[in-house]
Amino acid sequence: MNTKVVRAIDAFLDANNKIETTPPEVAPYLEKKGILKNSKQRSGKELRVLLRNGQIPNAIQKGNRWVIRRSNFRSPVKIKDTDSNLTHANEVNSKPTVKHQDDTLNTTESFSWQWCQDNSDTILLSGLSILESSSAYSFDHNFTLAFGNYLISDQNENWSYIGESNNLANRIKQHGKLKTSTFYKNYINAKKDHPSLAQDIELHDFRVQYISTNIGRKELEEFGIVNLPSNLNRFQLGKRKSVKGDTNADIWKAIQNQTDQLLKDGTQVIVNLGIVPWNTANPPNRAGIYWIEHPEDGLIYIGESSNLFERYKAHSKTTYFSAFRRNTAEKLLGFTLKEKKGKRKYLSETEEATLDQFISECSIKILPVAFGRFELEEYLIALKKPLLNRKGNSSKLT
């Protein structure tokens, strides 16, 4: 707990006869008292970092807003976690804990693929903190072309949208135009359902923060949707758990710098996995990578999914929803997809039966991945060049 900040907030509440406040409201007071700096671009940003790190226990979230109450407004019950250095603020608002390798982690050392899988929440909490603390820009800023993550929010922090892209400049440019802005369309629809937050905010009044991300960009998006939480995202909801704990920017930066080695490690893990017949596979309800072989054609497809079980089901029987089935039908079996209602995603019953038989002859490797699945998929496709993969055959290979 940051006792100095907590006591200063109590003093602010007493002086103004309040029982609760928000980061934008109290942040100027904290800066005036010389206790905590306040961003001119986004008031309360630095305080929100402390809140995200669990250093202000007398705070709760209402929708997408932090509300800070007097420290004696309630009596938090500290629950020690035996596996880590994290604590829960109270029983009602307790959140899953984060694993730490040890309390004296040397971030100059290399990290293994498995360590990143076991400690993905620690990594992502640190990455999200860096994103939240980054500078805010208008949409006309000259953004980088790199892979990365971005956070769009209004100045009062009532609305937010988090995303990822393999080309930040292009994606943010799309969001900055009314015709192509997904987040702003979501805002127009969402404000009808949140009258307490309803404001007429113009698109150009939103600001963008971003970071380059070499590995973990999809997981950071999914993690941020839950842990900000964002209220303008409409997809990838509930893919991660809500987490509180300490952050370590050095861990995030070190892992980003070690991406090539991590992807080589991950490649070795899936290469060494046993392969099982398609019809006896039992994928988990977890995110990960899958690798499909056919006895005559060899490695034919590598894919990723936020839910391996659901993706396996779709590939097993639903051509409309399965790029793997459609590609197999066209490229390996020579079928022509039929068009219905403008969608060329259908086969005849006879062709479906033939396709089912072909897939039943396949074998599959399944690798759950908690951190880095987009990047590992891209790396594997470029390295192994499966017959049916259309994307990613230029790559991060070194």
Walkthrough of the structure:
The structure is a single chain. This protein is α+β, with helices and mostly antiparallel strands. The chain has three domains: 3-76; 113-257, no CATH class; 260-384, no CATH class. Helix content is 37%, strand content 16%. The chain has helices at 3-15, 23-32, 45-52, 113-118, 120-133, 168-175, 182-193, 217-227, 249-257, 259-272, 308-317, 323-332, 349-360, 373-384; strands at 20-21, 59-62, 65-69, 79-80, 87-88, 148-153, 160-165, 207-212, 276-277, 288-294, 298-305, 338-340, 343-346, 363-368. The strands form five sheets. Strands 9-14-10-11 form a four-stranded antiparallel sheet, with helices on both faces. Strand 10 (288-294) and strand 11 (298-305) form a beta hairpin. The longest helix has 14 residues, at 120-133. The protein is elongated, with a radius of gyration of 24 Å. Residues 73-104 and 394-398 have low confidence and may be disordered.
